[in-house]
Amino acid sequence: MKTFIVALLFACVAMTSLGAVTIPLQNPGFETGAATFWYSPQAGVPGVVTHAAYPHPNNGTLGTYFAYYSPGDFSTTWIGQLVDTNYTASTGYRFSAWLSNGGSGTGGYEIGYCATPGDLATFVAVARAQYLISNAWALYPGVTYITDPSTVGKQIAVRFPNIPGNAGGVWLDAAQFQVLTPAPLIGWCNLQWPTVMVVPTVGGTAVTEKVYGQVWINGVTSIPGPTPGLNAWLGYGPTNATPDAATWQWIPADFNTNVGNNVEFYTNLTIETSVLPSVYAYCYKYLYDTNELPSGVRYGQKDGMHTLASYNPDQSGLLTVVPEPLALGVLAGALALAYTFSRRARM
Ligand SMILES: [Ca+2]
Q1: What's the CA-to-centroid distance between 61 and ligand 1, angstroms?
Q2: Among the three residues 180, 205, 226, which one is the final residue of a domain in this structure?
């Protein structure tokens, strides 16, 4: 019983954070020295060993023990646990853990439920995330799930899943499960300036001037400085494609300054040689993602904020990429024209 209480305390103290309510898992850090409370269909999985015997960087807060398993060795190799709460409507959940590469480059997380209530052997996943993991221990973002009507009322279960083809070991510690509170929504955003650009390729690459975009979150972006968790990307793509299309390319933008109650981002677009000279649309994309339910993506266009559904091609910036010889030709033509006009003016 004592070890159980220690495990619960560890979960409460180490993992509660602003914007999320932690639901304690049982034996989340494997500090019982065994896989107690963790279920696997495969005998002997997971194994539990000490950090002292297998030291990897960043293990300082992870206690004495950690667990390991080989998620790709057998089709049934996974580790799961029931969570002591049921899905409620329109709620976000996140399951994550500290991971380290024990021989395998990929680790994963799943949130789900049991088809037969209480029986983890019947686990059904409703959300999954995978990450390339490094040798050093790190807390990866994990998997986030927002309830849909089909899961409401079911008991939540979590799983470190099988990852076919991923032979080798994944190391686990400090698992955590959180109920996410909604983040404030993005209230307004835009593509600030410029809204038209003509860029010649130089050495096969086109680099635009800085492009600016602004975003406002009530009570959040008015705080001076960058807003933690507020991300912006500048993207470009075919004028006839919506910005969720795979043909759009996105570049993370940098914090520039505060403008009134807004935060302003800026960055250059770099068009690589693989992009053909053409006319492209460009706009900003914003996401506020702290340790809460993400705000949802919003697009900043010339006339302000759009969702994907309300995205308007006419309100994107227009970027013309001109091939190098043509750009020089246009420049030469323009100079010739100017020369002709000046000659005429004098005559
Ligand atoms: Ca531990």
Answers
A1: 8
A2: 180
Can you tell me the distance from the alpha carbon of 280 to that of 195, in angstroms, rounded to the nearest whole number? Answer: 12
CA of 213 to the centre of ligand 1 (A): 44
Q: How far does residue 66's CA lie from ligand 1's centre (Å)? A: 5
Does residue 81 sit in helix, strand or coil? strand
Q: What's the CATH code of the domain at 211? A: 2.60.40.10
pLDDT per residue rounded down to tens, the chain (347 residues): 333 333 333 333 333 334 678 999 999 999 999 999 999 999 999 999 999 999 999 999 999 999 999 998 666 799 999 999 999 988 889 999 999 999 878 999 999 999 999 999 999 999 999 999 999 999 998 999 988 899 999 999 999 999 988 878 999 999 999 998 777 789 999 999 999 999 988 877 889 999 999 999 999 999 999 999 899 999 999 999 999 999 999 999 999 999 999 999 999 998 875 656 789 999 999 998 776 666 689 999 999 999 999 999 999 999 998 887 654 545 544 544 444 344 443 33
**What distance in angstroms lies between residue 28's CA and the mean position of ligand 1's atoms?**
8
Q: How far is the CA of 63 from the centre of ligand 1 (A)?
A: 4
Ligand 1: centre distance to CA 334 (Å)? 70
What CA–CA distance (Å, rounded) separates 121 from 108?
Answer: 18
| 247 and 285 part of one domain | yes
Domain that holds residue 85: 2-180
Query: Does one domain contain both 96 and 127?
Result: yes
Q: Quick one: CA torsion of 71, 73, 74, 80, rounded to 10 degrees?
A: -20
Could you tell me the pTM of the whole model?
0.58
